[in-house]
Amino acid sequence: MASASLQFFAFILALFGVFGDIAATLLPNWKVNADVGSNIITAITQMQGLWMDCTWYSTGMFSCTLKYSILSLPVYIQAARTTMVLSCILSAFGICITTVGMKCTKLGGDTDSKNHACFAGGVCFILAGIFGLVPTCWYTREIISNFLDQTIPESSKHEPGGAVYTGFISAGFLLIAGVIFCSSCFKRQQGAWIYPPNKHHFSSTEQESNAGYNLKDYV
């Protein structure tokens, strides 16, 4: 019962991780630049994401432009696009597989099959967490390095946006869920190895009687 509750808790974490992963991939605020200028009425907030760049004005106007050209983008944005999409796909596969392998569901067949499905889903969550953690770290590093660069003007410097933090938290949820699923399956398999099923052992009297019976057959 305890392992089933732990798996259910990991499944909830994985759901939050999947939704956060998809949101971080689609949100346009991976890096934000606020330019107030001489008058706060003309304040402009510029946001850049993986797929579009948006501008928000203090008057309430909001405009976005899509990034159609892939080859013109920096390498870290191209890598972030690829790895975040892979993270979303792997986490979705993990949700489907662990739904079959969890102990609280009636899918997946016998215990061994559910155990293997649960372990495979945990591996998918771990890979999805790694693929989601790498682009957020790389993107944050680029933002910080550009912010600390003295040759770049202040108007061109940015700060990490909400999508980066969402990506970090989602990757953490997926990693924790994957570790819980894999460790719960490993504990059950290890218990089966330590305590193998009892085999039928013949007593010494039974062995002697069988030996005597065999000798009489040969006489």
UniProtKB/TrEMBL annotation:
Membrane protein topology class: Multi-pass membrane protein
UniProt subcellular location: Cell junction, Tight junction; Cell membrane
Gene Ontology MF annotations: structural molecule activity
Any single Pfam family the record assigns to this protein: PMP22_Claudin
Entry keyword set: Cell junction, Cell membrane, Membrane, Signal, Tight junction, Transmembrane, Transmembrane helix
Family: Belongs to the claudin family.
Protein task: Claudins function as major constituents of the tight junction complexes that regulate the permeability of epithelia.
Protein name: Claudin
